[in-house]
Amino acid sequence: MSNTLDTPIRDMLTISGEPENYTSKEFISRLLTIIRRHLKMDVAFISELVDGRRYFRHVDAKQGEDRVKVGGSDPEEDSYCLQVIEGRLPELIQDANDLEEARKLAATKDFPIGAHLSVPIRLENGRIYGTFCCFSTHPDHSLNERDLAMMHAFSEVAAEQIEQDLEEREKHNEIKHRISRVIDNELLNPVFQPIYDITTNTPTGFESLTRFKAEPARTPDVWFNEAAQVGLGVDLEIMALRRVLAEAERISSGYYVSVNLSPKTLLDGHIEELLCTQPDGRLVLELTEHAVVDCYEDLVDALLPLRNYGVRLAVDDAGAGFASFRHILALKPDIIKLDISITRNIDRDANRCELARGLMGFAHAVGSKIVAEGVETEAELDALRKIGIDMAQGYLLGKPMSVSELITNNYL
Asked: What pTM was estimated for this model as a whole?
């Protein structure tokens, strides 16, 4: 598309940085500012025509001019935009009062409109999205075909960005619909993986995991990540938590149940009312290494009443990255879960052994317990015992199962 722009226009676009350094909104705003100032106009805007109305999606105006605002709309039939698209008005108007068709429009006198340039924004599929417009309240007989050509060039650039925005909006809506369907119809089931006391070879607790029953088939982390992207992360986590708590009632109170929750959900006001009725020490909330914590003080405050109810805290994936250590230091968890990257092949790697031993010593010093995740071989289990770690989970000890399967397989 840059071939349609001559050198001066291309130079204007790169003022204050290359276009790719802008967000979509900033980039289009920059286009409008450049064209309005270059043509000495009062207002520049991009409109979208939808169901008989014109919506102002992006607006740039001179200081003090606020009659055209982003989000505003009016009937498209009364607009210059539709008249230009349908060919009833020319794209370049030096003086609106010279044209009978323009004089019929209320805006010509009410605003008033003097000079006006408007070009259609056409998408790749041929659909006209709306218009790229500039106008002033006074006539301007210096406007010429070169100015109109520049408007067309800028319109093509804006169309490319709008096309991307529309694709992202459509993708966003598809994801939101998919997640909403899961939430509304509770299309998921909790499963529970045994956590063993490896000194006695008996289960001591169960980590709850989520299995989705919806299409397309994808891993749970993808479902939860997409939900967060479209603002439904907390809703999905709370619905999953309700299902976990309902199923956990079938598990003897002698075992604890852990559930993964994001910081955003932990900060939600609905969590306390859900968890305050749980038996003391029964529930463990797991915070992963990948969870971004914006303010630890807020999270500590949100966790305090829950911990007063007997809810415990675990930091998951310890050793996978720096964030887990920040979680540990700031939140003082009851349980530290050793990441699978440390557990795997620990029997054959002295460095992994030393790291696990160091984390175990730290955990004991601060009053936390260690759970080793991802144990898959007897050799790994023996190595953990020798180090002194006494709790573990993994496919060697038990895969994630429904409560019915736990009962059938004598885990309960």
From this structure: 0.81
